[in-house]
Design goal:
The complex is a heterodimer of chains A (222) and B (495).
Chain A: H1 3-14, H2 33-42, H3 47-67, H4 73-96, E1 104-109, H5 117-127, E2 132-135, H6 142-151, E3 156-160, H7 169-180, E4 186-189, H8 195-201, E5 205-206, H9 210-221
Parallel strand pairs in A: 1-2, 1-3, 3-4, 4-5
Helix pairs in contact in A: 1-2, 1-3, 1-4, 2-4, 3-4, 5-9, 6-7
Chain B: E1 3-9, E2 13-18, H1 23-28, E3 46-51, H2 58-66, E4 73-75, E5 85-89, E6 111-117, E7 121-128, E8 133-141, H3 151-184, E9 189-196, H4 198-204, E10 225-227, E11 242-244, H5 254-263, E12 271-276, E13 282-286, E14 291-295, H6 299-302, E15 317-324, E16 327-332, E17 340-341, H7 343-355, E18 371-375, E19 378-381, H8 382-405, E20 413-419, H9 428-433, E21 444-448, H10 450-458, H11 463-471, E22 473-475, H12 484-490
Parallel strand pairs in B: 1-5, 6-9, 9-11, 12-20, 14-22, 15-17, 20-21
Antiparallel strand pairs in B: 1-2, 3-4, 3-5, 6-7, 7-8, 10-11, 12-13, 13-14, 15-16, 18-19
């Protein structure tokens, strides 16, 4: 692995967005994910390699540390931001099809619920594991999910809710999705949700943390 | 352990407590406030010893002399139980406001009842309207807690068809609390004023609370609800209708309206904040011209929920922690063995652990171990610390966003009042050092149960009084702020 790829991977893991970002303090003044991705492309490293060898392993380490309680939301968000900076540089290669993603993941917070930090973290972690992510935002209706699945055949769906009173809406959304497209896989998450609830509403997977979703998705893709 | 009897006059309450139990622990439950936080400087918690004795330490003696109190007077905040005693509690005779001036009221005839209906605790006081004196007090755990401890669980219970049961339970409970007070003090109450959060009001009034279950959380009618005592199934009459005051918004109720009244925030020239560290973590910022308020999801962690050894501020809870001579020192409520930790000590723990570099800027345990021992068998694990960070960030972000809504800076807030169940035990210096309230410590004042203080004030006020407050008060949805996520996550760090 080239020194550049290793450095870029570290920037993402520790949340160094670009040269100007003050965080993390020990990397102050150094190039960040944004600059290093540009340099890697200039040196002729393939865009797919940058994604798979630098970004994906970095986000994998972040996801593991998060699920082991070694890091918390702020660090994960900083890492996601650093990854986002690299993604901006790589965007043309996604559009041109030079970078192949593992699949499409549609995510949203179900109707009646406006909480989105957890959903956003999951979306960023999944993007960082090499999937295309379509984020439908919060208070998303069953119709909107179904419509998006029709536009993106083969997409996997993630549903989020934070309240005990809104998690029940996951059942309605799951039913609507399974009715319109029985083969579509649905994963659910959020503070009040658990495995029993997942089985009860006929969803395919529940994960207590972002890393769990990533691992489940990667199994689906392999 | 030895037990002693304490009689509280004029309430006619008799309690049995463990030897050396601080009086603070005993009186706190009856709505007594400790404005200077137990420093012994304000004199607001003074009691008269009618029989028995309370030991006087050198420090206590100095403070009593400095305040010019009579020989039989003691400061409750510096006293503990070492004898059977009968005490006359000074505060029951006066309604005390944060600025330590007595509430100006127009003396009226008869008696009134003020009720703070909390999600967790219900407090009722019988007031002599001619003098403003509290003549009886009752406290009770809200009987609805069997349906869950937080507000959303009550809404869920309404959805599950338990609304009428909850309505019946709370009406009966408040009715019998008032009856108990009237037994001790025979009178026909002229007025009953109840305050509480929006869900508590709707459930009490037998109105539909289920819109609070999901976005858009719209409640058609937030207004004051009035009742005849017999309609509530109460066995006594009231000369005027029973009033449950107006809510401000879907998640900010009349308890906060009462809190605004208690702090006098609506009359102040300079910007003032009120932060209720109860179950719903409401925040208010404003002055005489405009007021904004919001609720945050901060409360549960401070009340022990989601903290592995967390508990409410009751017997056995560590109420405060300090670091002395190289070791952690714990104060335990009721002077018993530590069973768990309540909100105030959780704040202390984080502040101390961070200062001692035992946890880092993200709350990470520096040693890499699973948990940190605090006192006895009580410890904090990484998840507990994370829960605290979420809660403190919710408060800090709420204050920040409300200030931006008023187009002011945090520095422009002249005073911050802290209300809430464990408020009495809070160490302000530690609150500031965790970054929960980003202002100077001297601007922060503890005010105890502002809802109850405000409810008492409302007994003396007409409808115009609350109307003027409601007219200038706006309810804000914090998560509607486009920068909410960045601000919130930023505030999770310990700096």
């Amino acid at each position: 692995m080239s020194e550049l790829i290793k450095k870029l991977s570290e920037c993402v893991e520790f949340g160094k967005v670009d040269k100007n970002s003050p965080f993390p303090p020990q990397m102050k003044g150094q190039d960040g994910a944004f600059e290093l991705t540009e340099q890697a492309l200039k040196e002729g490293i393939g865009s797919q390699d940058i994604l798979e060898e630098a970004l994906v392993p970095a986000m994998d380490r972040v996801g593991r540390k998060f699920s082991e309680n070694k890091i918390f939301v702020p660090q994960m968000l900083m890492s996601a931001k650093a990854m986002g900076a690299a993604m901006v540089v790589l965007k043309p290669y996604f559009i041109s099809g030079d970078i192949k993603t593992k699949g499409t993941f549609v995510i949203g917070t179900v109707f009646g619920d406006l909480h989105d930090i957890g959903k956003n973290l999951v979306a960023m972690m999944i993007e960082g594991s090499g999937w295309s992510v379509i984020d439908l935002g919060v208070d998303v209706s069953s119709d909107k999910f179904v419509e998006t699945i029709k536009e993106n055949p083969g997409a996997v769906v993630g549903l989020s809710a934070l309240l005990t009173t809104t998690m029940v809406n996951m059942e309605e959304v799951t039913n609507a999705i399974k009715e319109a497209s029985p083969e579509t896989k649905v994963t659910i998450g959020g503070a009040p949700v658990n495995d029993d609830f997942c089985k009860k509403i006929g969803a395919d997977n529940y994960s207590p943390d972002p890393q769990g979703v990533v691992e489940w998705l990667n199994k689906l893709a392999s | 352990m030895k037990k002693y009897k304490i009689k509280l006059y004029p309430l006619g309450k008799e309690l049995e407590v463990n030897e050396n139990t601080p009086l603070t622990d005993v009186l706190h439950e009856y709505g007594v406030e400790f404005p200077c936080a137990g420093k012994g400087t304000c004199g607001n918690c003074k009691v008269k010893v009618l029989s028995g004795s309370i030991e006087l330490s050198d420090n206590h003696k100095q403070k009593v002399e400095k305040l010019g109190l009579e020989d039989n007077r003691r400061l409750a905040c510096l006293s503990s139980c070492t004898d059977d005693v009968t005490l006359e509690v000074d505060q029951f005779a006066h309604i005390i406001l944060a600025d330590e001036t007595e509430f100006e009221f127009t003396a009226q005839k008869g008696f009134g009842v003020a009720v703070d209906l909390g999600t967790t605790t219900v407090v009722a006081q019988l007031i002599d309207l001619s003098t403003g004196e509290v003549v009886a007090v009752e406290t009770l755990l809200n009987p609805q807690v069997r349906f869950g401890s937080d507000l959303i669980s009550r809404v869920q219970a309404s959805l599950d068809g338990n609304a009428q049961e909850m309505t019946k339970l709370i009406r009966e409970s408040i009715g019998s609390m008032i009856e108990l007070m009237l037994e001790k003090h025979p009178a026909e109450p002229d007025k009953v004023v109840i305050v509480g959060n929006t869900a508590m009001q709707l459930i009490f009034a037998d109105c539909d609370a289920t819109p609070l279950a999901a976005y858009p959380f719209h409640i058609d009618d937030l207004s004051k609800k009035t009742f005849d005592a017999n309609e509530l199934g109460w066995n006594f009459n009231t000369n005027n209708k029973v009033e449950f005051h107006s809510s401000i918004g879907s998640f900010v109720g009349s308890d906060i309206l009462a809190g605004i009244a208690a702090t006098g925030l609506h009359r102040k020239e300079k910007y003032t904040a009120l932060i209720d560290l109860g179950t719903n973590g409401e925040i208010v910022v404003g002055n005489k011209d405009q007021i904004v308020c919001a609720s945050t999801a901060a409360g549960p962690a401070f009340e022990g929920a989601n903290i592995s050894m967390g508990m409410r501020a009751t017997t056995g809870a560590i109420s405060s922690l300090s670091f002395e001579n190289g070791e952690m020192k714990a104060e335990v409520i009721g002077n018993s063995k530590p069973k768990g930790i309540c909100g105030s000590a959780l704040i202390d723990a984080i502040a101390i652990l961070h200062k001692k570099e035992l946890i880092g800027m993200f709350g990470e345990i520096a040693s890499g171990e699973e948990s940190i021992k605090l006192a006895g068998k009580v410890s904090l694990n990484q998840k507990d610390i994370n829960e605290f960070l979420l809660a403190k960030a919710a408060i800090a972000a709420g204050l920040d966003i409300l200030a931006s809504n008023l187009s002011i800076e945090l520095e422009d807030i002249n005073e911050v009042y802290i209300a809430g169940g464990f408020g009495n035990y809070i160490n302000i210096e530690n609150v500031v050092s965790t970054g929960m309230i980003e202002t100077e410590g001297e601007k922060i004042h503890k005010m105890g149960n502002t809802a109850l203080i405000g409810a008492k004030m409302l007994l003396f006020k007409d409808a115009d009084f609350t109307k003027t407050i409601l007219q200038k008060t706006k309810h804000i949805n914090l998560e509607g702020d486009p920068n909410f996520q960045d601000i919130y996550v930023n505030k999770m760090m310990l700096l």
